[in-house]
Amino acid sequence: MKMAMQLAMQHQRAGARPCRGWRAGGRPCIRRRALESGNGSSSSPSSSPSSADVVSLLEKKVAVLGNVSGSDRGFGFDAELRKAVTTSVEDLCAGCPAGEAKDATGTWRLVYSTNFGPEANPRGGSRSQPLLPLGQVYQRIDVEKGRVDNIVEVDVPLLGTIELCLEHDLRVEGDSYVITFTGTKVAGSSFPNVLDSLPQALKPPQQELSSASFVNAYVDATMRVSRGDRGELRVYVK
């Protein structure tokens, strides 16, 4: 619940006040759209989310983080706990508008993924558990430059923490982010077999699976939920 309390404090600073400005073409920015959607409030540019809307959204976000707390990003959860996460995420995303790609530019820390755990079998792989201790996992998105980098920290005995950067080109198609793997950079060491230690979902893809897509089902200043084209669900925070 520590993560949930931190989110509440962040939301009070970042989410409880109106977001900055409007997008080109008169569309409201992501946080306001998310707060106005599905609550019966007016969608005119002059309207603002009510205090009840803000509190309701905050409660849903805290519920998601409370459910993923202690999951070790999904490695430690069984089917029942995974179902609780999915239910709370669906509740959070229920009022979000569809059909428009949400700008998710920034560096996001992964806190939950359905790719991790005993039932996961991503991209046809057979192993979801890492052979070496896995540190933080980040996704760095730059929509303007058309880049998505998955950054993985791995603790290697005698060598310390190794940072891997799996680089991707990005193009936006409708509401989907389509990414194509372009290469891997290893910072801090030339240890050759560190990639083999990663869980299947974090390894560089095989040639036939070098492209994938995901939709950002929910985005605001502190949380992002993405759904992949192979059924995977991921939750990120800043």
Give the overall shape, derived from the CA principal axes: globular
The count of strands amounts to: 8
Radius of gyration: 18 Å
> So how many helices?
4
Distance between the termini: 16 Å
Overall pLDDT metric: 75
Contiguous low-pLDDT stretches (5 residues minimum) are 12-46, 121-127
Structural class computed from helices and strand pairing = alpha+beta
What topology, given as strand order, has the largest sheet? 1-2-3-4-5-6-7-8
Helix content: 10-25%
Beta-strand percentage range? 25-35%
Provide the domain count. Answer: 2
Architecture overview:
This protein is of the alpha+beta class. The chain folds into two domains: about 1-95, no CATH class; about 105-235, Lipocalin (Beta Barrel). Helices cover about 20% and strands about 30% of the residues. It has four helices and eight strands, in the order ααααββββββββ. It has helices at about 1-15, 30-35, 50-70, 80-95; strands at about 105-115, 135-140, 145-155, 160-175, 175-185, 210-220, 225-230, 235. It has an eight-stranded antiparallel beta barrel. A hairpin with a 2-residue loop joins strand 4 and strand 5 (about 175-185). Helix 1 (about 1-15) runs antiparallel to helix 3 and helix 3 packs antiparallel against helix 4 (about 80-95). The chain is globular. The model is unreliable at about 10-45 and about 120-125 (pLDDT under 50).
Main attributes of the structure:
238 residues; alpha+beta; Lipocalin; 2 domains; eight-stranded antiparallel beta barrel; 4 helices; 8 strands; 31% strand
Topology overview:
Blueprint lengths: L1 H13 L15 H7 L14 H18 L10 H15 L12 E8 L20 E9 L4 E10 L3 E14 L2 E12 L23 E9 L3 E6 L4 E5 L1
Antiparallel strand pairs: 1-2, 1-8, 2-3, 3-4, 4-5, 5-6, 6-7, 7-8
Pfam family, one: PAP_fibrillin
Organism: Chloropicon roscoffensis
InterPro entries: PAP, PAP/fibrillin_dom
